[in-house]
Design goal:
Number of strands: 13
Helix content: 25-40%
Oligomer: single chain
Order of helices and strands: HEHEEEEHHEHHHEHEHHEEEHEHEHH
Distance between the termini: 56 Å
Length: 390
């Protein structure tokens, strides 16, 4: 246990570390040779918006906490500011997870825009410059989660997010989403006619992210690109060979850019088409295992069909709280992880509580440390040596 006198000091260091981080060097100036590599022998632990079950989402502190807790990838949503800066933020409006309402000078900025066919009113990121967005402070989305960090951290840029991953003591992947590209391209214009997707890929290239899945370059700086918009994923396929994940929403939500139904985008014909551009799908988990009266029903065949098309499956979102745990799990998040990994057979999991998933996987399929690997190699060498003498 941390004493009451030490805890405030640790928190102060965390705040200072997230608000006054130095400018990180580009990959060419770093030395990754001694970094522990990404594990690839078990499903990926993806920190959904950072460790946001503990710390407000999409903040530097949430991502740093997820890295401490053992995540394989830190996940983020990428939006844009009025002046074209790429930021890490989930909602197209600032209302629910920032203190925008307390900034009276911005009171006149409220707008109503069409967002995926729905009139949405609020303070949109596209109507604020980066400096204005940086003046806001982030707060916890859910009232039943820890509120002590509200107002402590600011919105961060895509480049700052990348720097956090590159600065980690081991190799940590990134998992950025091209968020609401239709809306962004309608309201934000870049010089030379460039699109949101162009700026997104340019940022990844600037920091050395490249390479197909499990290639040498990819293993050095792992990244998955995700989007609910298949046209965006297809568009960037000519700009980067980084692996891409096609996100899939609820069964009642049409595809945001093509207006296709859930049935259409999960058909064998479409899976066969999209596999030319992506390495996997990221469905909402309740579309894979239907739920009735908060009880799980029989899993459908989407995971099996995706695997038959050589596509990975990374469902979202796993959360520890009872509100999100179906009755079958007896209020135990570890039973949920066990079901999805061992019964459903998924290849990665988006979780708000990356520490819990990491602990479960270390208990059930522990990674081999350098010392363990060295001991194993010595044992093998000894066995081979004895064999040669006989």
């Amino acid at each position: 246990m941390v004493s009451s006198s030490v805890a405030p000091f640790i928190f102060l260091l965390l705040v200072l570390g997230c608000s006054a981080r130095p400018l990180y060097p580009l990959p060419s100036r770093r030395n990754d040779k001694t970094k522990q590599p990404l594990q690839t022998f078990r499903p990926y632990n993806v920190a959904h918006r950072g460790s946001n079950g503990e710390i407000p989402e999409e903040t530097a502190a949430a991502y740093m906490r997820a890295i401490e807790e053992g995540t394989d990838f830190i996940e983020t949503d990428i939006l844009a500011s009025k002046d074209g800066a790429l930021i890490c933020f989930h909602d197209v409006i600032l209302d629910d997870t920032t203190d925008i309402a307390e900034h009276k000078k911005f009171a006149s900025r409220k707008r109503t825009y069409d967002v995926q066919g729905l009139n949405t009113t609020g303070y949109f990121t596209v109507d604020f410059t980066l400096d204005e967005l940086k003046s806001l402070r982030v707060k916890q989305r859910f009232s039943f989660r820890d509120q002590q960090y509200n107002g402590k951290f600011s919105i961060i840029t895509f480049e700052e997010f990348i720097s956090i991953a590159l600065d980690a003591p081991r190799i940590v992947g990134i998992y950025p989403e091209i968020k609401n590209p239709v809306l962004i391209n309608q309201h934000v214009k870049w010089p030379g006619g460039k699109k949101f997707e162009d700026k997104f890929v340019e940022t990844l290239v600037k920091y050395g992210y490249k390479g197909s899945y499990l290639s040498k370059h990819w293993l050095k700086q792992p990244a998955f690109i995700q989007s609910f918009a298949p046209t965006s994923l297809i568009y960037i396929s000519n700009q980067t060979d980084l692996p891409k994940i096609f996100l899939i929403d609820d069964v009642n939500v049409p595809c945001q850019d093509t207006n296709q139904t859930f049935a259409e985008i999960t058909s064998d014909g479409y899976l066969d088409f999209i596999k030319e551009y992506v390495v996997g799908i990221g469905p909402w988990k309740d579309t894979l295992v239907p739920v009735s009266n908060n009880y799980l029903q029989t899993p459908n065949d989407l995971v099996a069909r995706a695997h038959a098309h050589d596509l990975q499956v990374h469902p979202y979102t796993f959360r520890n709280e009872n509100l999100f745990l179906h009755y079958n799990y007896s209020q135990d998040p570890y039973l949920e992880y066990d079901f999805w990994i061992n019964e459903v057979g998924v290849d990665g999991l988006f979780t708000d509580f990356t520490g819990s998933l990491h602990r479960y996987q270390e208990w059930t399929s522990p990674s081999i440390s350098d010392d363990d690997a060295s001991t194993l190699l010595h044992k093998i060498a000894s066995m081979v040596s004895k064999y040669r003498k006989t």
